[in-house]
C-alpha cells in the first residue's frame, strides 16, 4: 500500500474531491497551508506531490483530529538500520487515550521518511509526549542524532479540515 500527499491552499485541494470522487482524500490545514492525503495502490493523481510506501500501519485515519508528522531525512546507507529500528520497536502508542492512527512512511523518491500520527486532539498528543510510554519507546536514543540522519528531523502539524 502507498500513501500520497501534496500541499496547497485548501480551496485548491478541495477541488481534487470534485475531480476524483472515487478517492477518499483526507484534507488537513496548518498555519501556512493545506495538505491532501490518501492511500491506495494505483498511480498518484497529484501532478506535484510526494509518494510513500506504508511500512507500518495502525488504526484508521479519521476525518476529525490532530495530525503530527515527524519528517526524518535518512542517508541511503542508513535506511535499512532506520527501518529495522522502527519495525522492532515496541509501541504502546495505540493504547494511549486519544490515539487514532499511525503510519511509518518510506519515501519513494528522496530521503525523508514520515512518522505520521493522528490524535483526537492536540492535548492527547501532548499527553503522549509526556507519558512513560513515550519515554520507553524513545529510550536508548542518544542526545547526539544517529549517524543515519541526513539532516535535522522536523515536525509538521495539521488539524483535519471539516468540509462542512
From TrEMBL:
Keywords: Monooxygenase, Oxidoreductase. SUPFAM superfamilies: Dimeric alpha+beta barrel. Gene3D superfamilies: 3.30.70.100. One of its GO terms (molecular function) is monooxygenase activity. The keyword Oxidoreductase applies. PROSITE patterns: ABM. It comes from the Bacteria. The keyword Oxidoreductase applies. Residues 66-158 form the ABM domain. PANTHER family: SIGNAL TRANSDUCTION PROTEIN TRAP. This is Antibiotic biosynthesis monooxygenase. The lineage of its organism: Bacteria, Bacillati, Bacillota, Bacilli, Bacillales.
Amino acid at each position: 500500500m502507498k500513501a500520497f500527499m501534496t500541499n496547497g491552499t485548501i480551496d485548491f485541494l478541495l477541488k481534487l474531491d470534485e475531480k476524483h470522487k472515487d478517492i477518499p482524500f483526507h484534507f488537513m490545514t496548518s498555519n501556512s497551508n493545506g495538505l491532501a492525503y490518501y492511500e491506495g495502490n494505483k498511480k498518484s493523481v497529484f501532478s506535484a506531490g510526494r509518494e510513500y510506501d506504508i511500512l507500518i500501519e495502525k488504526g484508521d485515519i479519521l476525518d476529525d483530529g490532530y495530525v503530527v508528522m515527524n519528517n526524518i531525512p535518512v542517508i541511503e546507507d542508513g535506511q535499512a538500520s532506520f527501518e529495522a529500528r522502527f519495525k522492532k520497536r515496541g509501541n504502546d502508542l495505540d493504547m494511549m487515550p486519544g490515539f487514532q492512527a499511525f503510519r511509518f512512511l518510506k519515501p519513494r523518491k528522496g530521503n525523508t521518511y514520515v512518522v505520521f500520527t493522528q490524535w483526537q486532539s492536540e492535548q492527547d498528543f501532548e499527553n503522549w509526549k509526556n507519558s512513560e510510554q513515550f519515554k520507553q519507546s524513545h529510550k536508548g536514543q542518544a542526545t547526539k542524532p544517529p549517524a543515519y540522519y541526513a539532516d535535522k528531523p522536523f515536525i509538521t502539524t495539521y488539524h483535519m479540515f471539516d468540509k462542512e
